[in-house]
Amino acid sequence: MSRFPADSVGLVTPQRQAFSEPLQLACGKALNQFELVYETYGELNANHSNAVLICHALSGHHHAAGFHKVDERKPGWWDACIGPGKAIDTNRFFVVSLNNLGGCHGSTGPSSIDPATGKSYGAHFPVLTVEDWVHSQALLADRLGIACWAAVVGGSLGGMQALQWAISYPDRIRHCLAIATAPKLSAQNIAFNEVARQAIINDPDFHNGDYAAFGVIPKRGLMLARMVGHITYLSDDSMGEKFGRELRTDVLNYDFTSVEFQVESYLRYQGQEFSERFDANTYLLMTKALDYFDPAGAHSGNLASSLEGIKARCMVMSFTTDWRFSPARSRELVDALFAAGKQVSYLEIEAAQGHDAFLLPIPRYVQAFKAYMNQIEVA
């Protein structure tokens, strides 16, 4: 009997695809060769019509569901929604989840070796956009024999990629699910990203992005960046419920350097853990890709005009306490899709967990997600 739950995809093994054709990037540079790491769950049907692409958020990666080891306790980051009988049902769908180009979990990125120099790219890795990611994902789809995705699904930055897929490749996507996302970042969001970047850039161990050559990492900067980011992913209510003003001990130390409140301990733990698994240059790249995303920018700010070429049916979902990507931003996208004459459904979910709600098994969210996915034809 398997030790894994019945609704788990079980053991999964990451796969690697190498590309030797140049990928022209929006910044004007090109990557002459690169690799993408990805995982698949379920089986591709005979006519290749049941493929679903999962696009990850800022700190995400290819490991979205299942386990890499038999004794592994923590499954992939979206295991709550991917698996047999779940919202993205692997009994029906062939699911592809990849680590984006520029990432630090196997795909070619700043920590990879530049074949031209024999050293890590570091700060010399080119700046990427959401469009660049979508173009690289289309190349992966070609290699997998997928001419058209049944759906492209993503939350947060992943939702931006799903929307860009519908814009860039209207004939290669039938359904677009954009969850807890926005058609562009607000000034406040860009400001949060800039504070995070400055924390990294001003770390003495950053060395202008070439820290690998010095055998160090900008750990303090990464910790601060994660702490700032993590605060924005949670709602005030969820933080209050989880931590309140609880002290770690019964005594106040009256010391600026000590960790007295439980929330302080939590944030420091999150920052420490993140600094040990994520690359600083990748963090800079990902936040810039977030900042640059603005489909309406090429249409004089008219979002509806930027969506006119979309053929996919769209599903947009938001969460009431998400102040990083508020429901108002999702409604802005929905209104523009309606104005462009597109098929769109919208659900605003009552949830106390803030932006991170899209990752969690909130009953109404999962039920609606599953209901939408179940009506997608795959025959």
From TrEMBL:
Residues under site feature: Important for acyl-CoA specificity: 324
EC number in record: 2.3.1.46
Keyword Amino-acid biosynthesis: yes
List of residues binding substrate: 226, 356
Pathway: Amino-acid biosynthesis; L-methionine biosynthesis via de novo pathway; O-succinyl-L-homoserine from L-homoserine: step 1/1
Catalytic activity: L-homoserine + succinyl-CoA = O-succinyl-L-homoserine + CoA
Protein name: Homoserine O-succinyltransferase
Organism encoding this protein: Halopseudomonas salina
